[in-house]
Amino acid sequence: MSIDHENIGIIAGGGQFPLLFIDAAHKAGRKVMVIAHKGETDERVASAADDVCWVKLGQLGKVISWFKAKGVGETVFLGAITKTKIFRDVMPDLKALTLWNKIDSKQDDAILRAVATALEKENIAVRESTMYLQHLLFPEGVLSKKKPSKEQRRDIEFGWQHARAIGRLDIGQCVVVRNCTVVAVEAIEGTDAAIRRGGKLAREKAVVVKVKKPGQDFRFDLPATGVITIQTLAEVKGAVLAVEAGQALIFDREEMMRAADRAGIVVVGVTENPDGTLTY
Fold it and tell me: How confident is the model at residue 114 (pLDDT cuts 50, 70, 90)?
């Protein structure tokens, strides 16, 4: 294999993250080779890429051989894959099946780390997902017009500790809280589904806390928020979205904040200090 150092690969899921990366990479003088997942990746990603290969979830051997043919020596994981599809829509080839059988835990981090290791054994380095896109990291402080009340701050602090705990177990990245009671924990269904479930139980004024997992690998699966997160919270008359600053992604920030202010939702970027206290 001859590596073309102008070429960078993307293993793309859904959402706009791959599109934003392609634009930034092109501005940096790179050509972008995209592995697109059928039923997940936006067609616009394929149109924006310099070349594209459509695969089904689990076709790891095809990914590796195509990247090698295109001279790709480094890649990034970008965009979401609907996690429930691992129970119904995976079409593993021999390479993926061999890898799958070696993984003791089938949780997110374990799977992604195993795939990254397999790629790197083939001399395809896996880079941080924020490469070229540092400006998308969630900022610290109150982003909304409305500020958190004393009671909401207490819920944020309570939820923070519980979100950290589920992160250590690689279950999910967010919890939904009301009056210092956890009403929902994110698992395989994703953040929006957890917000809907927790919001219905809370009835109103739910506080959503979303943090990175301890030891989060910046190469994949960073927490992400956007307009849809706010719309979902508004549907259940939720009150607060608190996200770990510098460790999560924020998409369409201006539109997101307009939606939050219309709904009267507090949005804050939170930093955990070495002594465990929170700043925002």
Answer: confident
The first and second tokens of residue 89, run together, are 């829509």
- Is the torsion defined by CA of 57, 61, 67, 73 positive or negative? positive
Helix (H, G, I), strand (E, B) or coil at 11: strand
* Residue type present at position 264: G
Q: Please give the average per-residue pLDDT across 192-201, as a whole number.
A: 96
Residue 227 and residue 170 share a domain: yes
- Cα(67)–Cα(85) distance, integer angstroms: 24
**pLDDT higher than threshold 80 for residue 178:** yes
Domain identity same for 58 and 153: no
Q: What is the mean pLDDT of the chain?
A: 89
* Measured distance CA(48)–CA(238) in Å, rounded: 37
Residue 137: phi, psi to the nearest 5? -70, 140
| Residues 154, 104 share a domain | no
Can you tell me which residue has the tokens 């690998």?
217
Domain end position, chosen among 79, 105, 126: 126
Euclidean distance between CA atoms 88 and 99, whole angstroms: 18
Closest CA to 180 of 199, 200, 154, 204: 154
User: Does the reported pTM lie above 0.90?
Assistant: no
Please tell me the distance from the alpha carbon of residue 156 to that of residue 175, in angstroms, as a whole number: 10
pLDDT given for residue 88 in this prediction:
52
Instruction: Identify the H or E element spanning 8.
Output: strand 7-12
Contact 212, 242 (CB under 8 A): no
The domain total for the chain is 2
User: CA-to-CA distance for 134 and 140, rounded, in angstroms?
Assistant: 14
